[in-house]
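Hi everyone, sorry if this is the wrong subforum. Our group has a chain we'd like a structural model of before ordering constructs, and none of us has done structure prediction before. Sequence below.
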Amino acid sequence: MAHFIVLSEAQAVLGVWSTPHGVAASRWAMELGLTYPGCRVQVEQAPDFDALKARLPELCFRAHAPEPVDPLVRKRAPSSPGWTAAAAS
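Answer:
Right subforum, don't worry. Here is the predicted structure as tokens:
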């Protein structure tokens, strides 16, 4: 089961990340929370992205798709919503 990290403000989703590792999800959520103190960060376990969206109907995911979090790559949390792993490379 995947761990999804959702960064949101009010009901708008700013970013979604996924990882199979719970520790990586917790670490990424902590960094996002410190980087965006006014935003809500949630870590949810779900079998897939559609199940996550069904579990959080109050959030507007729009065209967001989860970005993978690689637990072996030590990168800081994104400096702006909409950040992608490809942009950091």
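For your construct planning: Residues 34 and 77 are 9 Å apart (CA to CA). The chain is about 30% helix and 30% strand.
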